[in-house]
């Protein structure tokens, strides 16, 4: 547990104390919340401004739930006119970052800390979960909850660490150039992992090259004397990032592709259940181990290799890494999450994130599963967000890929994704092989009527399209998702 007093928070953030705030009031960082509904006794409540709401409006609710101090941009008062205890700052989110940077500094001063940061257009959360699974048995390990990977999520992850934390795993996302540079400045990674450069957020970035520029900020931020870049050799844009640092650089990749990768996959394939099988080779030591991953789909190979390479750099023995990868399964929800219904229908809910590359990977996995077991396949696909001017073309291309892979049925959900259906029809789909429906309710009604035992259903879209909740409804027809939490709740 790391504690700061109100006075020290004000000093770190260049803020000031609201009237009547006790300078010696101490708060534990791990009790920091940005949602008043999550406040508990002793909480530090961060009143940040959002697109739809202003956190200052919820300061009374946070204190009613037990918060003892607010990090705020203006003074607020209770019904009796007294100001709530607060540290007043110019920007609450930037103040969170300053607190996170100081927390990391204190943890480093207290003991042996390794900070591992992960970025890439896809696979960050899966790689984070794998790394946490490998490193946790070796020492106190902290990793992000869910996909905490931005200006708010990274500090919240740091706040959950304590002075004895041995491994701090940080996931870094971005929607514009400069964000990853900022996040790296807070935690100063020892190991920086770049998985790949895809077209996710291409609209916001203004093109794939700008995405590569942004992801490479992690590499550029590494300390030349102590940092190590871990790069995907099989991705040309990532491989080129080696030129952005004088820090040590190591690669991971497919052995068949050649190259100087220190961690390699040999003879990678999938088994009858769709799980990757390969030989994990550590080129530096010559050690090699057979691995059967609990993840679903060959497109997870970069995630598996990246986790292995980063873990080895962090001090994990090769044999332990291989044994861990053999035992680990998907740990976060809605990422190739496989669920078996009592009637024999298989549902793969991969609707937390989507871009053209991950869509194709998931569709290939679906096709392989259907082919191996001679089962009918359904792809229920929604919008891929933030693709910019290429959005229609990219959606059209995904529909065509579904046809080329001989997916039995394609269900396209939502007007923004309709180009997938058009692309499938133009590629040669006929009859009811491809269907367009207006929304998730219509998709559910169609599937409820037509699914039969043995069918395999893939549900995939960007997070904002909300199809992950449709996936839950399909997997557990007697339940429905709570629209706020996404957890399954009875609907009787």
What layout of secondary structure does this protein have?
Elements: E1 3-5, H1 6-13, E2 16-17, E3 26-28, E4 32-33, E5 44-46, H2 59-64, E6 69-72, E7 86-88, H3 92-110, E8 114-119, H4 124-135, E9 141-142, H5 153-159, E10 167-171, H6 179-187, E11 191-194, H7 202-205, H8 208-215, H9 217-220, E12 228-232, H10 236-239, E13 248-254, E14 263-270, E15 276-282, E16 287-292, H11 301-313, H12 318-327, E17 337-340, E18 346-349, H13 356-373, E19 377-381, H14 391-404, E20 409-413, H15 418-427, E21 434-437, H16 440-450, E22 456-460, H17 467-475, E23 479-481, E24 488-490
Parallel strand pairs: 4-5, 5-6, 6-7, 8-10, 8-11, 9-10, 11-12, 12-13, 13-14, 18-22, 19-20, 19-22, 20-21
Antiparallel strand pairs: 1-3, 2-7, 14-15, 15-16, 17-18, 23-24
Helix pairs in contact: 3-5, 3-6, 4-11, 11-12, 13-14, 14-15, 16-17
Tell me what the structure shows.
By secondary structure, this protein is α/β, with parallel strands linked by helices. Helices cover 34% and strands 21% of the residues. The protein has a nine-stranded mixed sheet, with helices on both faces. A six-stranded mixed sheet has the order 17-18-22-19-20-21, sandwiched between helices. Strand 9 (141-142), helix 5 (153-159) and strand 10 (167-171) form a beta-alpha-beta unit. Helix 3 packs parallel to helix 5, helix 13 (356-373) packs parallel to helix 14 and helix 16 (440-450) runs parallel beside helix 17. The chain is globular, with a radius of gyration of 24 Å. 54% of the residues are buried.
């Amino acid at each position: 547990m790391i504690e700061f007093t109100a006075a020290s928070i004000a000093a770190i953030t260049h803020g000031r104390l609201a009237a009547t705030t006790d300078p010696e009031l101490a708060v534990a960082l791990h009790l920091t919340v940005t949602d008043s509904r999550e406040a508990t006794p002793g909480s530090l409540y961060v009143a940040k401004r959002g697109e739809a709401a202003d956190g200052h409006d919820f300061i009374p609710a946070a204190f009613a739930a037990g918060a003892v101090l607010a990090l705020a941009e203006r003074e607020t008062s209770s019904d009796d006119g007294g100001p709530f205890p607060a540290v007043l700052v110019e920007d609450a989110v930037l103040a969170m970052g300053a607190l996170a940077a100081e927390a990391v500094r204190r943890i480093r001063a207290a003991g042996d800390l390794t900070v591992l940061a992960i970025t890439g257009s896809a696979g960050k959360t899966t790689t984070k979960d794998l790394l946490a699974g490998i490193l946790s048995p070796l020492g106190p390990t902290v990793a992000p909850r869910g996909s905490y990977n931005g200006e708010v999520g990274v500090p919240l992850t740091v706040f959950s660490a304590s002075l004895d934390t041995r491994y701090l795993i940080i996931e870094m996302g971005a929607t514009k150039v400069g964000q990853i540079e900022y996040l790296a400045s807070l935690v100063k990674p020892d190991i920086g992992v770049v998985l790949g450069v895809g077209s996710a957020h291409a609209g916001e970035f203004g093109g794939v090259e700008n995405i590569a520029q942004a992801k490479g900020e992690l590499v550029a931020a590494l300390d030349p004397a102590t940092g190590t870049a871990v790069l995907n050799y099989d991705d040309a844009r990532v491989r080129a990032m080696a030129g952005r640092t004088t820090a040590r650089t190591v690669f991971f990749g497919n052995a068949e592709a050649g190259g100087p990768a220190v961690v390699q996959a040999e003879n990678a394939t999938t088994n009858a259940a769709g799980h990757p099988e390969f030989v994990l080779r550590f080129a530096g030591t010559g050690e090699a181990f057979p691995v059967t991953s609990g993840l679903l789909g060959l497109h997870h190979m970069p995630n598996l290799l990246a986790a292995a390479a980063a873990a080895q750099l962090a001090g994990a023995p090769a044999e332990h890494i291989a044994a861990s990868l053999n035992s680990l399964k998907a740990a976060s929800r809605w990422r190739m999450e496989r669920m078996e219904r009592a009637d024999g229908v298989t549902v793969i809910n991969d609707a937390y994130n989507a871009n053209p590359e991950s869509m194709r990977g998931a569709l290939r996995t679906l096709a392989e599963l259907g082919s191996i077991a001679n089962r009918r396949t359904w792809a229920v696909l929604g919008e891929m967000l933030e693709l910019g001017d290429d959005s229609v073309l990219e959606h059209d291309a995904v529909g065509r890929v579904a046809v080329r892979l001989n997916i039995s049925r394609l269900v396209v959900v939502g007007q923004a994704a309709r180009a997938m259906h058009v692309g499938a029809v133009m590629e040669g789909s006929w009859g009811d092989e491809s269907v367009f429906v207006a929304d998730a309710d219509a998709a559910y009604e169609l599937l409820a009527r037509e699914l039969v035992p043995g069918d395999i259903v893939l549900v995939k879209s960007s997070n904002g399209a909300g199809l992950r909740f449709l996936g839950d409804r399909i997997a557990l027809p007697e339940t429905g998702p709570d629209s706020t939490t996404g957890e399954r709740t009875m609907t009787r």
